[in-house]
């Protein structure tokens, strides 16, 4: 077990929440809100631009990180590593983490800053990397890892699918080296299938498809669904990855006290818990209040689970995340 533990958490979502009825008016769209609520479990979300709020990815990430640092009762100058996990960055370059470091520390500092972009698995992969970096470099005593999502900025007008599911938000952890042996990072398990790159994503704006007048006119910009995702993908993947993670770590699935999954579909999480043979009270949901916040959803769900008493110190926790590409990340740690 790596001697790295979570000492602070924070979340941020812009503006007042928007329920499904108000969303139809604000975005001028129509969708089956009853299906969205009963199947996906999404009742509300936060979307900055629909509230007229001039905030974007770096703003969300900075505020979540500041909340986590305050929760840890630390001085911002105590942070040695900043990682921002997102596939909706502030800019293509420089990295969003660099902006966050500048806003939080306000000066040149002996710290490192970089982004992890692996679609909605970004936070789980960033957490795994942060723990391993800290374990091998004793000069890095504290790190901030932020999962943040601003996909509504890429949703095209009249895209009912995009607006009804994707939302703005961020969750952040402060990690610290520890010596008590009661908390720590146990393991991670990753999986990738890059042959699935052409399902859903933001394909314009990079080197292959620069944004041009022609692409904009053809509606080939922003969030694009190129082909349907396999309907059973997460139901198949998540139990398989959790079982491999726990086996690799020398424990059984039943030894895990709490599971947090990518918060895109409540009914899928229910099916996965059934497949694992675990009771539903060993997982948490926040899509009802935040919608789907991509890379931000797992740290946001964890934050609320801790603050609401569902997760306690000394318990084993599993994060299970997957996203377009295909990218999959998972973590096992003792809180």
Describe the overall structure:
There is one protein chain. This protein is of the alpha/beta class. The protein folds into 2 domains: 174 residues, Thiolase/Chalcone synthase (Peroxisomal Thiolase, Chain A, domain 1, 3-Layer(aba) Sandwich), CATH 3.40.47; 119 residues, Thiolase/Chalcone synthase (Peroxisomal Thiolase, Chain A, domain 1). 33% of the residues lie in helices and 22% in strands. It contains 11 helices and 13 strands. The strands form 4 sheets. The protein has a 5-stranded mixed beta sheet, sandwiched between helices. A 4-stranded mixed beta sheet has the order 8-13-12-11, sandwiched between helices. A two-stranded antiparallel sheet has the order 2-3. Helix 3 crosses helix 4 and helix 8 crosses helix 9. The protein is globular and about 60 Å long. The model has no long low-confidence stretch (mean pLDDT 97).
Brief account:
The protein has two domains: 4-177, Peroxisomal Thiolase, Chain A, domain 1 (3-Layer(aba) Sandwich); 184-196 and 229-334, Peroxisomal Thiolase, Chain A, domain 1, CATH 3.40.47.10. 33% of the residues lie in helices and 22% in strands. It contains eleven helices and 13 strands.
N-to-C CA distance:
12 Å
CATH architecture of the largest domain: 3-Layer(aba) Sandwich
Annotated CATH topology of the largest domain = Peroxisomal Thiolase, Chain A, domain 1
**Weakly predicted, low-confidence segments:** none
Average pLDDT figure: 97
CATH class of the largest domain: Alpha Beta
**What is the structural class?**
alpha/beta
- Count all strands and give the number: 13
Report the order of strands and helices. EEHHEHEHEHEHEEEHEHEHHHEE
| Dominant shape | globular
Tell me what portion of residues adopts beta-strand conformation. 15-25%
Given the structure, what is the number of helices? 11
Number of domains: 2
Classify the helix fraction into a percent range: 25-40%
Using only C-alpha atoms, the radius of gyration works out to 19 Å
In what order do the strands lie side by side in the largest sheet?
1-7-6-4-5
């Amino acid at each position: 077990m790596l001697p790295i533990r979570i000492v602070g958490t924070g979340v941020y979502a812009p503006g007042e929440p928007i329920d499904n009825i108000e969303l139809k008016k604000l975005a001028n769209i129509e969708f089956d809100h009853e299906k969205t609520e009963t199947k996906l479990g999404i009742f509300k979300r936060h979307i900055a631009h629909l509230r007229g709020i001039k905030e974007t990815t770096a703003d969300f990430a900075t505020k979540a990180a500041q909340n986590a640092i305050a929760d840890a009762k630390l001085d911002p100058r105590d942070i040695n590593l900043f990682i921002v996990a997102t596939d909706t960055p502030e800019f293509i370059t420089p990295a969003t983490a660099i902006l966050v470091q500048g806003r939080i520390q306000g000066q040149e500092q002996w710290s490192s800053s970089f982004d992890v972009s692996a679609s909605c698995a970004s936070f789980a992969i960033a957490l795994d990397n942060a723990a391993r970096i800290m374990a091998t470099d004793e000069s890095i005593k504290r790190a901030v890892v932020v999962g943040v999502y601003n996909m509504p900025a890429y949703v095209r007008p009249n895209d009912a699918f995009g607006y009804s599911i994707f939302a703005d938000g961020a969750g952040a952890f402060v990690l610290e080296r520890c010596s008590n042996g009661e908390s720590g990072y146990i393991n991670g398990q990753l999986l990738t299938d890059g042959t699935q790159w052409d399902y859903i994503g933001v394909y314009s704006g990079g080197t292959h498809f620069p944004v041009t007048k022609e692409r904009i006119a053809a509606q080939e910009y922003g969030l694009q669904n190129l082909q349907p995702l396999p309907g059973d993908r997460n139901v198949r993947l998540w139990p398989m990855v959790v079982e491999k993670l726990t086996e690799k770590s020398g424990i059984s699935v039943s030894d895990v006290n709490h599971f947090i999954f990518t918060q895109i579909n409540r009914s899928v999480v229910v099916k996965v818990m059934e497949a694992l043979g675990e009771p539903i009270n060993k997982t948490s949901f926040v899509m009802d209040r935040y919608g789907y916040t991509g890379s931000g959803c797992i740290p946001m769900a964890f934050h609320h689970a801790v603050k609401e008493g569902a997760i306690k110190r000394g318990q084993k926790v599993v994060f299970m995340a997957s996203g377009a590409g295909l990218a999959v990340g998972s973590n096992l740690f003792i809180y």
